[in-house]
Amino acid sequence: MATEKMLRFVSLGKEMPEKRPADLRAHDFHEIYREFAEVKAADQASRCSQCGVPYCQAHCPLHNNIPDWLRMTATGRLQEAYEISQATNTFPEICGRICPQDRLCEGNCVIEQSGHGTVTIGAVEKYITDTAWENGWVKPIRPVAERTESVGIIGAGPGGLAAADVLRRAGVQVTVYDRYDRAGGLLTYGIPGFKLEKPVVMRRIAQLEEAGVTFVMNCKVGEDISFDAIRGQHDAVLIATGVYKVREIEAPGSGAKGIVKALDYLTASNRKSFGDEVPEFDNGDLDAKGKRVVVIGGGDTAMDCVRTAIRQGAVSVKCLYRRDRANMPGSQRETQNAEEEGVEFVWLSAPKGFTGGTEVDGVMVQKMRLGAPDATGRQSPEVIEGADYIEPADLVVQALGFEPEDLPKLWGVEELGVTRWGTIKADFQTHATNLPGVYAVGDIVRGASLVVWAIRDGREAGASILDWLAQSAAVAAQ
Ligand SMILES: Cc1cc2nc3c(=O)[nH]c(=O)nc-3n(C[C@H](O)[C@H](O)[C@H](O)COP(=O)(O)OP(=O)(O)OC[C@H]3O[C@@H](n4cnc5c(N)ncnc54)[C@H](O)[C@@H]3O)c2cc1C
Ligand code: SF4
User: Fold this and answer.
1) Co-location of 253 and 354 in the same domain
2) Is there a single domain that holds both residue 258 and residue 392?
């Protein structure tokens, strides 16, 4: 009986796939978790309590049918597990690797809430789809029938690619424009290989290329081609450009050499892992080797920077964050990984300025305490007077978050509606903007968010665009 194989959380403890030892993994950019063995994946899946109201599913942005694919995995029906999993997720093996599961599915698992330790949902999801790729169960995308309508997608990140997948399966002619030389957006150039190895992303892009999606790379919309020209060439347009404007520290000395932006730093490192020539890395500017590194920020981008610096051979890596550990925005799992690899966290500390003149040699640190809660209920950091000190640093990485660029201005489309935060205004369900036939998804709508939300938006926008094309065809036929 299948049910006998489930509900084993009482007798079987939670186990993640084996983590490579910190002293080994800190020297390379390979993923840190080894693959589950088949028996281990089945065992861990069998811990699911198959509860009537699966909170994991409700808190997964894609509403993945998690209990069903766990049951299939536990009972050895892996191919069916894969079919169920891929029905709601365009890139399950990517989400399984990089979703912050502790805040989403796993954080809301009922057996986690009852103190038994969550089912390791993300690791099983990754295992299922990696196995599907190995066994040839991931089939090429074959459009049902070719259609004449075309859609232009600006931005080849997860939002744009998820929409491209939906539209191409329906036979629509899809062209994806991106300013970078490789597709994938932050999956390719932001997120480091130790969280997401690049062949995993490139395999998906090859799948879309083989399906007939046209990629126009090295093409910056607004410079190499106008937004209006793209609109003129296609029946509908999807904007999926992400958010890239950096929040910079404004403090004495902040323009000095050696103070760099997180994404420049991570992109250079990711490019090196592709074997590219990167002059700013090769001349040492964006290489942490032999340096005392200070990363400023407490989010996931900061975690990626500190762990990259360790792998590049920094002599010391410190992370300055103005609140404490309990109040940091980054994932606790990633923070623990960073600590194991040798990163030192300096909590309740903020930069006041930089020393060294034209070339940074230190960060002036002011110590903070948590004061009264602000309007959101979060305690505001307050400066402790007289406790400043200088933290020596040869490389300072600013990782304070991202904001949207002013697209209406940059693209000369002042009529494109934006919110007061500068993100594009789009309908929550259809993702339509105020311009007919123009849709928008992912970070450029939500602000800096998550891959899984970009995938959800992209899938939904793809379906809405199909409706729009059908309506336009019906009107034209009248
Ligand atoms: C360092 C870092 C680590 C992260 N780690 C995680 C993680 O572990 N888990 C997670 O879920 N999320 C993570 N995120 C967030 C996640 O990467 C984003 O939420 C997600 O990639 C957003 O997808 P998107 O498709 O909206 O945009 P993006 O992935 O940013 O893609 C946008 C694409 O648009 C292109 N583009 C922009 N402007 C133009 C233009 N004018 N013309 C042509 N092309 C253009 C860009 O080149 C890019 O390729 C991380 C983010 C960063 C910065
Ligand atoms: S997509 Fe993300 S949130 Fe949803 S089940 Fe997978 S790992 Fe969990």
Assistant:
1) yes
2) yes
Q: What's the chain look like in SS3?
A: CHHHHCCCCCCCCCCCCCECCHHHHCCCCCCCECCCCHHHHHHHHCCCCCCCCCHHHHHCCCCCCHHHHHHHHHCCCHHHHHHHHHHHCCCHHHHHHHCCHHHCCHHHCHHHHCCCCCCCHHHHHHHHHHHHHHCCCCCCCCCCCCCCCEEEEECCCHHHHHHHHHHHHCCCEEEEECCCCCCCCHHHHCCCCCCCCHHHHHHHHHHHHHCCCEEECCCCECCCECHHHHHHHCCEEEECCCCCEECCCCCCCCCCECEEEHHHHHHHHHHHHCCCCCHHHHCCCCCCCCCEEEEECCCHHHHHHHHHHHHHCCCEEEEECCCCHHHCCCCHHHHHHHHHCCCEEECCEEEEEEECCCECCEEEEEEEEEEEECCCCCEEEEECCCCCEEEECCEEEECCCEECCCHHHHCCCCCCCECCCCCECCCCCCCECCCCCEEECCHHHHCCCCHHHHHHHHHHHHHHHHHHHHHHHHHHHC
Domain span holding position 42: 2-134
pTM: 0.95
Last residue of one domain, picked from the residues 401, 416, 431: 401
Digit-coded pLDDT (tens) for 385-432: 999 999 999 999 999 999 999 999 999 999 999 999 999 999 999 999
Residue 142 lies in a domain: no
Closest ligand 1 atom to Cα of 224: 42
pLDDT at residue number 4: 63
Whether residues 78 and 225 share a domain: the answer is no
How many structural domains are present in the chain?
Answer: 3
Residue 122 Cβ contacting ligand 2 at under 6 Å: yes
Residue 164 is part of a domain; what is its CATH number? 3.50.50.60
In terms of domains, do 251 and 332 share one? Answer: yes
236 lines ligand 2 (CB under 6 A): no
96 lines ligand 2 (CB under 6 A): yes
* 199 in the same domain as 306: no
Mutation probe of ligand 1 site: the residue of 90, 99, 105, 186 with most atoms within 8 A of C-beta: 186
Model confidence pLDDT, tens digit, residues 99-158? 999 889 999 998 888 788 888 999 999 999 999 999 999 999 999 899 999 999 999 999
Shared-domain flag, residues 391 and 252: yes
Q: Tell me which residue has its CA closest to atom 7 in ligand 1.
A: 98
Which ligand is nearest the CA of 64, by number?
2
Classify residue 430: in a domain, yes or no: yes
Ligand 1 pocket check: which of 215, 246, 451 to mutate, most ligand atoms within 8 Å of Cβ? 451
